[in-house]
Specification:
With 224 residues, this protein is an all-alpha fold. It contains nine helices and two strands.
Length: 224
């Protein structure tokens, strides 16, 4: 039973249970795509069907992680298979558990409102947005936003964070951002706004069928 219900794995050289950050990021990507597509269907079609399933899957998955064992979480199992040929990047299990508890609270709130009560409100919208942001930062940047709150509730320092961000150290030259680089980013943002302002009408036009394929298909459909 102890091996079945457990959180984190014992790896030689690490003094606390750890998890593989690579499979966590892969799993976050899977859940992000599922939630993102579901939210888009709500926004553009007003269809909550897929979102209800997505929330149920998300909640079930994270409950398995927190209360049984991350090894049996479906998304983490798939993530582990996807990154099976990559060298593991070990991260501390305690801060991940704390972050996933936050996720459990958020997912449970959405589940109660959307699936059980069958209602939506700004509350569900804001929580969905928060979940998407958490998942996006995890899968895209390897940043666990929930882990940032760990030191506020626990005295012990978080260990084995992704990218060694828990350890205080000076940045290498390749990590530093110069004023010129920041100016380029600012200029790029201005460029985007100018493009939207000056060429909005052109960009909003539907492109024409260069080879007339769509027209040919429609003509054949009409004939039949």
């Amino acid at each position: 039973m102890n091996k079945l219900i457990n959180f984190g794995e014992t790896v030689e050289g690490y003094n606390i249970p750890v998890l593989n950050e690579r499979e966590i990021r892969a799993a976050a990507g899977i859940l992000f795509v599922l939630m993102f597509v579901s939210v888009l269907k709500v926004i553009f079609q007003g269809d909550f069907f897929l979102l209800k399933y997505a929330v149920t899957i998300f909640l079930t998955d994270i409950l398995i992680r927190v209360f049984i064992n991350p090894k049996f979480s479906p998304s983490l199992v798939i993530g582990r298979w996807i990154v099976r040929n990559q060298v593991p990047e070990y991260v501390g299990a305690p801060q991940k558990k704390f972050a996933w508890i936050i996720g459990t609270v958020l997912a449970t709130t959405i589940f109660i409102h959307l699936v059980i009560i069958n209602a939506f409100s700004p509350i569900t919208g804001i929580i969905c947005l928060i979940c998407l942001i958490f998942l996006f930062f995890e899968t895209s940047f390897g940043i666990c936003l929930g882990c940032k709150f760990y030191p506020m509730f626990y005295k012990e320092k978080a260990q084995y964070c992704p990218g060694d961000v828990c350890d205080v150290k000076s940045k290498q030259d390749i990590q530093k951002t110069s004023g010129v680089q920041l100016f380029i980013v600012l200029g790029f943002i201005v460029f985007i706004f100018l493009t939207a302002f000056l060429f909005n009408d052109n960009l909003n036009e539907k492109p024409y069928d260069l080879f007339g394929i769509e027209s040919s298909v429609e003509a054949k459909i009409v004939e039949h």
